[in-house]
Amino acid sequence: MILITGGTGILGKELIKLFPSSLHPTHKELELSEKNDVLKFMKNNRVNVIIHAAALTGVRDCEENKSKAWQYNVTATENLVNAFVTYYPQGYFVYISTACVFDGHRGMYTENDIPHPENFYALTKLLGEFIVKKLSKYLIIRTNFVAKTEWKYPKAFTDRFGTYLFSQDVALGIKSVMDNNLQGIVHIVGDSKISMHDLAKKLSPLVEPMTITEYQGPALTMDMSLDTTRWQKYTLSS
To answer: N or C: which end of the chain has fewer CB within 10 A?
Structure first.
């Protein structure tokens, strides 16, 4: 049985479409930050695969609510991993990480590059990676994606870059990597490095450009582009 966390998120919804028989409890049905809740759930359900996509992802939100970010991104991951070790030590744990674990000073990071977080959100996701590595069979997916819906901001950065994909592209990539039983760290990436503004225009042609000089807030990962030495690259779906 497959457990998908974060099923109400943009990636989680796409994963559920690909794994329709999976368990995907809501936040109210399973509180991941509560150790006993997670242990009880794992004891009562024969889960041998976990796709852990739940996280607090807003950079500003994580910076301003560090205890909440820690609870959602670190404690929740620790609870899942410990429960998995207890009941299904040979299970397959898939952890959805982020390109933001790198500092973004140069871009096109591979699986072999050394992470260096720029903000608290990225730090919590990197700590999650280290927690997952205690398992005997794990897969860490680093990627960078958005929903294929209207851009939700009036502007987008011309000087932030990524090898972006849409959430459905990443979900398909995750399934393919899992079908091939890969383990360790894998980057699921687009085949083109583009600016955030170029990405936004594909969704909302009238979105206006902006640069980092117009931004006020926590440090951002400026170049989120990823490369891969372990897997294929994908074309951003039209």
So the answer is: C
> Tell me: the pLDDT tens digits for 179-226?
999 999 999 999 999 999 999 999 999 999 999 999 999 999 999 999
154 vs 218: CA distance, rounded Å: 20
Rounded Cα–Cα distance for residues 104 and 220 (Å) = 8
Residue located via tokens 């503004």: 197
DSSP string, 171-214: HHHHHHHHHTT--EEEE-EESS-EEHHHHHHHH-TTPEEE-GGG
Q: How many domains does the chain have?
A: 1
Residue 223 covered by a domain: no
Q: In sequence order, what are the beta bridge partners of 86?
A: none
Q: Is residue 214 part of a domain?
A: no
In a domain, 169, yes or no: yes
C-alpha span between 93 and 95 (Å, rounded): 6
Host domain of residue 107: 2-148+165-189+228-234
Instruction: For residue 85, give the CATH number of its domain.
Output: 3.40.50.720
Residues 88 and 38 sit within 8 Å (Cβ to Cβ)? no
pTM above 0.90, yes or no: yes
